[in-house]
Amino acid sequence: MSKGPGLFSDIGKKPKDLLTKDYIADQKFTVSTFAGPGVALTSTAVKNGGLSTGDVAALYKYRNATFDVKVDTESNISTTVTFTEILPSTKTISTFKLPDFNSGKLEVQYFHDHATITAAAALKQSPVLDVSATFGTPTIAFGAEAGFETKSGSFTKYTAGVSVTKPEFSASIILGDKGDTIRASYLHHLDQLKKTAVVGEIIRKLSSNENTVTVGGLFAVDDLTVVKAKLNNYGKLGAVLQHEVIPKSLLTISGEIDTKALEKNPRFGLAIALKP
């Protein structure tokens, strides 16, 4: 694939991941293993309050095709089939879920040195069409996306964004919610190994004049342990401790408290992921 500006969904992804990824509020246990050449099996159990769920997934890779099948505790079967290079510089992704026969979706991505274009359509009688385009370079990218509902003839979404990415920082501005929300974010790495970083995000809702400001950080205690924390202007304080118990196997502990209402019960999460 071309090393171009990336997908539109990549704009603002790095700061967002640092502020959201691994901040969990449930108990999760995941075991992964290899069942043969190109075949990976993953079993996941999740407990959220008094509700327990789980799924089993199988991932199979063969040449330029990847098949990902997941079965959950309610006997729903989710399948994702990905083909690369059917046509030069393209990726084709097909998803569907059984027994919901109207859940199918087909997406085609085209990658170029200075542009990335995606088109996706729901496989049903009155599909919703999603189109996005990104132009620029791996350093500076401009992009937009839109969703169109064929049945009503109306736009379901339109979003635009710009990002600047360098080895030491990533900055982005996104205009979303049909022009009603502005999201600006900035991530800065404090060392060359990217083991220490600070991040900030401002979200402004134009219709209500509401601002949400979140700051956070990442610090590697050692080669096996990482600590993350975040705080917003509403007093929500979150923290994550992640430790590599054995190679490729992670223990994650997460917590969140409301510093302006300490009488409320804090939220805690625990995840264990075992990989071969």
UniProtKB/TrEMBL annotation:
Belongs to the eukaryotic mitochondrial porin (TC 1.B.8.1) family. This is Voltage-dependent anion-selective channel protein 2. The keyword Manganese does not apply. Keywords: Ion transport, Membrane, Porin, Transmembrane, Transmembrane beta strand, Transport. It comes from Turnera subulata. PANTHER family: MITOCHONDRIAL OUTER MEMBRANE PROTEIN PORIN 5-RELATED, VOLTAGE-DEPENDENT ANION-SELECTIVE CHANNEL. InterPro entries: Porin_dom_sf, Porin_Euk, Porin_Euk/Tom40. Its main location: membrane. It is found in: Membrane. GO terms for cellular component: mitochondrial outer membrane; pore complex. GO terms for molecular function: porin activity; voltage-gated monoatomic anion channel activity.
